Q: What sequence folds into this?
């Protein structure tokens, strides 16, 4: 799609729910969503679907882009009523496919009326199907509240959607607004693909913050929060996100959207994650993410990651992930590019834009590398299997994570792409880098939100365009082999090495606090989930135990409750004291543990003191890591 002029863009697209004139083309399906019950997690929807007589199948979206699995929350679809010619129509679910509804359209009927409700879950863990609303805000993903007819591609189906908001709420979306009457917003018709790619953020406490105002197309932070206070983002943080917009422009060399909106829900009572779209991202953060430095430091790389997906994941997408419709299974094998490269580019953009200091960048890298290094699952499962099995691994529990190995293609993908970046820099004596790969791969000229698929061969070919090398073997060996250690060649070529010190970094402490963890996996071999009475978790629990660690050898397993340490009630402080005292003694650390309805003392024979990951300079090796995160875009005075 050609890029309209900048002026037309400002008038037409996604400008914070402002209207333009629209008319529905023939065959358009209308979708009216009533979100006035969103504060109690309930959505109502009505569809009108043009039809002709005969048998027909209606689908509820199952495989939603960006979630890499069959996550469509069909169990929450409720109140389904279908009528034709004013008469109720019987429907029957497919016996095997829970997402398919069969109907017989009667003679003379040209339109179906469909009513349905979406029963919003209250759990905060999960993706777009998890908690999406509070009393003060809601994030509407259209795939939750619609059906679509079999037969046509979602790229051919046209939907005219409207949304009724709770009184006085404001909204933002990538969709173009046709009219805004009272609390109801009507959007201009779009394809089903585009609709599902364009969620709507709404709320009572709302703020729009323009970023890098000199850049076209426009970029905005759209904030909806549980309180006015949470909207108080500082000019310094806005300046860092503006710099992110500039740095992304330099790194990728082109943009593939007409505008970009970070749709940010700020609440402690929605699910916390990011979901990428062509022209927006659904970013769900803690209520005080922007006003509390503590939360901000641990979550500030979310937006660079989701923003990068506009290029890698949306504009360029692995062929296996560009399925024909929302029912066809996706093939996740290239997620080490889709997510792994995005993770790498997101963290280096966090460094280049100033969202992270160089020290914070290194501390994050140390933590993720050390976690990978003690993930024993790497000794049976090659990285490529974590991508192929992604659709089941996202749902896997944290318990046994080190043994199972989970979606490691994010952080191990980062190490592989860092390895590639430093290899290119070394081979070309600093003349070329992964920046050059990005400019070729993401296609050097501006377009609208188009899709171009890629394969493994395309990745190898593009790397060879940057510098000739046996990239196929380079990648295959890292993706398909069983190893005992994380791939750290990129860190070491970059002038640093992973070491352990007795003092945790501020980033380590921040991650522990945000996740309610006490992480002693590098000493005792345990990750402890702290008690959280508000969530019905009155006792600290072992979230994971590292295979062959001292805790493992003592017989401790995930799920057990930690009651006491050396004869005293458990607290993180008592445990840390015990680790330090054991360093100079020979007595084991005695842990009182409840295993189901049994209590036992477990003796952990460990005397190595506290151990926390950090990166240390390798003398006489140039600081390539520092070079990689140096800003490339000028900062305005
Ligand atoms: Zn991602």
A:
């Amino acid at each position: 799609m050609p890029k309209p002029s900048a002026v037309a863009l400002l008038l037409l697209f996604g400008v914070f729910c402002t209207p333009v004139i629209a008319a529905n083309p023939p065959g358009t399906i209308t979708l009216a969503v009533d979100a006035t019950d969103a504060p109690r997690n309930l959505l109502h929807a009505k569809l009108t679907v043009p039809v002709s007589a005969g048998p027909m199948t209606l689908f509820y979206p199952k495989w939603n882009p960006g979630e890499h699995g069959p996550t469509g929350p069909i169990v929450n679809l409720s109140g389904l009523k279908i009528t034709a010619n004013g008469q109720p129509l019987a429907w029957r679910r497919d016996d095997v496919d829970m997402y398919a509804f069969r109907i017989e359209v009667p003679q003379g009927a040209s339109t179906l009326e469909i009513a349905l409700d979406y029963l919003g879950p209250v759990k905060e863990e999960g993706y777009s199907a998890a908690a999406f609303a509070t009393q003060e805000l809601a994030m509407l993903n259209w795939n939750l509240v619609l059906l679509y007819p079999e037969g046509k591609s979602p790229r051919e189906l046209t939907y005219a959607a409207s949304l009724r908001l709770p009184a006085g709420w404001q909204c933002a979306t990538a969709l173009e607004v046709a009219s805004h009457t009272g609390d109801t917003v009507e959007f201009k018709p779009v394809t089903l693909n585009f609709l599902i790619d364009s969620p709507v953020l709404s709320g009572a406490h709302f703020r729009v913050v323009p970023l890098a105002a000199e850049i076209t197309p426009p970029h905005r932070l759209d904030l909806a929060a549980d309180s006015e206070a949470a909207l108080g983002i500082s000019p310094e943080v806005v300046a860092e996100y503006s710099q992110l917009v500039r740095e992304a422009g330099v790194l990728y060399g082109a943009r593939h959207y007409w505008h970009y909106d970070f749709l940010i829900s700020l609440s402690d009572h929605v699910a916390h994650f990011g979901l990428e779209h062509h022209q927006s991202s659904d970013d769900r953060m803690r209520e005080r993410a922007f006003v509390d430095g503590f939360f901000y430091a641990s979550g500030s790389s979310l937006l660079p990651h989701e923003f990068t997906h506009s290029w890698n994941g949306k504009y360029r997408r692995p062929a296996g992930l560009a399925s024909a419709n929302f029912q066809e299974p996706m093939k996740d094998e290239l997620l080490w590019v889709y997510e792994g490269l995005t993770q790498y580019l997101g963290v280096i953009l966090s460094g280049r834009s100033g969202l992270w200091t160089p020290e914070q960048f290194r501390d994050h890298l140390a933590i993720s590398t050390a976690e990978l290094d003690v993930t024993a699952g790497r000794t049976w499962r090659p990285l490529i299997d974590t991508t192929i099995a992604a659709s089941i691994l996202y749902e896997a529990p944290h318990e046994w994570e080190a043994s199972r190995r989970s979606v490691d293609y994010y952080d191990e993908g980062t190490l592989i792409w860092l390895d590639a970046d430093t290899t290119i820099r070394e081979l070309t004596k600093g003349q070329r880098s992964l920046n050059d790969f990005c400019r070729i791969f993401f296609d050097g000229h501006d377009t609208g939100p188009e899709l171009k698929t890629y394969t493994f061969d395309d990745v190898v070919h593009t790397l060879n365009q940057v510098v000739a090398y046996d990239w196929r073997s380079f990648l295959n060996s890292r993706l398909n082999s069983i190893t005992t250690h994380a791939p750290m060649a990129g860190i070491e070529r970059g002038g640093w090495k992973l070491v352990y010190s007795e003092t945790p970094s501020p980033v380590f402490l921040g991650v522990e606090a945000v996740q309610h963890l006490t992480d002693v996996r590098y000493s005792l071999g345990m990750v402890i989930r702290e008690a959280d009475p508000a969530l019905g978790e009155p006792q600290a629990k072992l979230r994971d135990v590292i295979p062959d660690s001292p805790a493992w050898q003592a017989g401790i397993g995930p799920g057990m409750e930690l009651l006491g340490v050396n004869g005293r009630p458990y607290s993180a402080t008592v445990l840390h004291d015990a680790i330090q005292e054991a360093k100079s003694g020979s007595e084991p650390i005695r842990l009182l543990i409840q295993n189901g309805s049994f209590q036992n003392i477990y003796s952990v024979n460990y005397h190595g003191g506290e151990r926390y990951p950090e990166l240390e300079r390798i003398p006489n090796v140039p600081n390539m890591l520092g070079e990689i995160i140096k800003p490339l875009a000028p900062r305005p005075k």
Q: What stands out?
A: Confidence is low (pLDDT under 50) at residues 1-16, 18-22. DSSP finds 20 helices and 32 strands in the chain. Residues 276, 305, 309, 339, 342 surround zinc ion (CB under 6 Å). The longest helix spans residues 235-252.
